[in-house]
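can u do me a favor
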C-alpha cells in the first residue's frame, strides 16, 4: 500500500518508520523542511506541499487502485483544519483520510461530514515509546475505510490486536479522550502515593519502591515504570522538576462530557484541577487565609514572609 503522511514530528515520524518497515510506500510532508528531509532519509518520498503530496500519491497509485490514503499527525485544532482545507480540492469519495492526533471528537464528526473522503478519527496511545512497541489505535468512521486501512493499522499498532474500530465517526477520538481522562487520574493516584512516601515516616528509596511494585504488585503498570524511570533519572526528590503540570485539553473535554452525560468523574476532575492549581497563585486560598483572621483573629501569612 501507499500512504501519505502529513505531520512528521515525534509521532508522525514513527508512523512513517513503521509503515515503511512493514514494506509499504510512504509520501511525506511537514511544514518543517527539516522534518520532511528526515522522513526522506528514512526512505519516504518527500513532498513539498499538501497538494504535491496528493499528486504524488495519485501518480504513484497502481492501476486499479481506488483512491489515495493519507494519515494526518499534526497538532489538534487549526492545523488539522488547515491541512484539510489544502486537501479538499483534491479529495474524492474513494480517498481515505486518517486523523491520528488528539482531536476533539466533535471536530472529527464535523470534519467527517464536511469532506468528500472517508474520514477515520484515530485515537493514538503509546507516545514515542511506540517507535519500538507500536501504538494502541482507537478508530472511528466508515467500516470499509477501516478495513481498507487495516494493513497500515497493523503496521502502526502493536499488531492486529492493537487496533479496533470503535464505531461511527467521532467514536475513536471519543474513546481516546476518555483514555486521557483515565491517564490523568492514574497519574494523580501515583503522584499522591509517592508524595506520601516521600514526606512520610521512612527514608525510602522511591526508585526501589517503584521497581518492587512493578514486579508483581497489583498496581504495576507502564505509568509506574515511568515513575521508576523518573526517580532513576531525576533523583529521589525529582531534582529541579518544577511543581507545575502543563497540558490539560483532553482532560477538560473528558470532564465537560461527563457533566453533559451526568456521569460523576471526581477522580478525573480532581486530577485536572490539580494541574490548573499548579499553574497559579490561588485567590481563593488567600481569601480563606484572610477570613480566618476575620472570624478568629488568626495570623495571616503575608507574601514576603
Ligand atoms: N506526543 C505524544 O505522546 C502523543 C501525541 N499525540 C497527538 O499526535 C499529534 C502529533 O503530536 P506530536 O507528534 O507529539 O507533535 P509534534 O509537535 O512533535 O509534531 C507535529 C508536527 O506537525 C507539523 N505540522 C504542524 N502543522 C502542520 C501543517 N499544517 N502541515 C504539515 N505539518 C504540520 C509540525 O511541523 C511538527 O513537525 C497531536 O495531535 C498530539 O496530541 C497523540 C498521542 C501521544
Ligand atoms: O495523548 C497523549 C498521551 O496519551 C499525549 O501525550 C497528550 O499530550 C497528553 O495529554 P496532556 O498534554 O493534556 O497531558
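np, heres the sequence
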Amino acid at each position: 500500500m501507499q500512504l501519505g503522511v502529513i505531520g512528521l514530528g515525534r509521532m508522525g515520524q514513527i508512523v512513517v518508520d513503521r509503515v515503511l518497515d512493514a514494506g509499504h510506500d510512504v509520501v511525506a510532508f511537514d511544514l518543517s523542511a527539516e522534518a520532511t528531509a528526515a522522513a526522506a532519509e528514512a526512505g519516504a518520498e518527500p513532498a513539498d506541499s499538501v497538494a504535491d503530496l496528493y499528486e504524488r500519491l495519485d501518480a504513484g497509485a497502481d492501476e486499479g487502485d481506488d483512491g489515495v490514503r493519507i494519515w494526518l499527525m499534526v497538532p489538534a485544532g487549526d492545523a488539522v483544519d488547515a491541512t484539510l482545507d489544502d486537501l479538499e480540492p483534491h479529495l474524492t469519495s474513494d480517498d481515505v483520510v486518517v486523523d491520528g492526533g488528539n482531536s476533539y471528537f466533535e471536530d472529527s464528526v464535523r470534519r467527517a461530514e464536511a469532506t468528500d473522503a472517508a474520514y477515520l478519527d484515530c485515537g493514538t496511545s503509546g507516545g514515542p515509546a511506540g517507535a519500538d512497541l507500536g501504538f494502541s489505535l482507537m478508530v472511528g468512521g466508515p467500516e470499509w475505510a477501516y478495513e481498507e486501512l487495516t494493513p497500515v493499522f497493523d503496521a502502526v499498532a502493536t499488531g492486529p490486536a492493537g487496533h479496533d474500530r470503535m464505531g461511527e465517526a467521532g467514536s475513536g477520538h471519543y474513546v481516546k479522550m476518555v483514555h486521557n481522562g483515565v491517564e490523568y487520574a492514574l497519574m494523580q493516584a501515583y503522584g499522591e502515593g509517592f508524595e506520601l512516601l516521600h514526606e512520610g515516616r521512612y527514608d525510602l528509596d522511591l526508585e526501589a519502591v517503584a521497581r518492587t511494585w512493578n514486579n508483581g504488585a497489583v498496581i504495576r503498570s507502564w505509568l509506574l515504570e515511568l515513575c521508576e524511570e523518573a526517580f532513576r533519572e531525576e533523583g529521589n526528590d525529582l531534582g529541579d522538576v518544577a511543581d507545575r503540570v502543563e497540558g490539560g485539553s483532553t482532560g477538560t473535554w473528558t470532564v465537560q462530557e461527563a457533566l453533559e452525560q451526568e456521569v460523576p468523574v471526581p477522580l478525573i476532575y480532581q486530577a485536572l484541577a490539580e494541574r490548573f492549581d499548579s499553574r497559579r497563585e490561588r485567590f481563593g486560598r488567600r481569601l480563606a487565609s484572610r477570613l480566618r483572621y476575620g472570624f478568629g483573629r488568626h495570623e495571616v501569612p503575608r507574601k514576603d514572609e
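Strands lie at 2-6, 25-29, 45-46, 69-72, 96-99, 118-125, 136-140, 163-167. hope that helps!!
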